[in-house]
Amino acid sequence: VHHIHNVLLPKVLKAVRAPWVDRHGKTVEEATIAHAVETIARPAGATIISPRDGKVGCAYVDTLKHQNDFGRAIALLSYTWSNKVTSVSSALMRWTDTVGRNPKRAYVWICSLCLNQHRIEKKVMSPEDLVAEFGPRVQAIGRILPMLEPWCNPTYLTRAWCLFEL
Fold first, then answer.
1. In sequence order, which residues have a C-beta less than 8 Å from that of residue 16 and are 6 or more positions away?
2. Label partner for 74 (CA 20 to 30 A): which of 67, 100, 105, 128?
3. pTM of the predicted protein model
């Protein structure tokens, strides 16, 4: 949580300034998780050897070196790629405060940052592949934090994958 709020968020906000045109030609007013992956997470691991398969291109989490930046997850963030990065960061900070956790030691598993986007984007995954990838992880972590934004009509509830994670 500390890394997301104090390192990743400022980098994303610097990279994605309104008006910004994303890779799909859409003008962006506020950075989303998709923009964080596009501008920071995927490029960060582009030239690094993955410790998981020994190939060039690794997950964002594999680029992190400081003990405050990664550790065993105590929760899994369930979200959509359209969630705003600022909302995710502030929600996670509020969550750590509410549950009495130090943000420097509150590690949250976020698929877009923990899974190797260099492999996923080149591979078509069936629903069965996704279940095999996520099912055991959801159970092992044991806590899901659903990102409900906007509160009055959360996009999250319209996404089948998000409902599966629950």
1. 28, 31, 35, 39
2. 128
3. 0.85
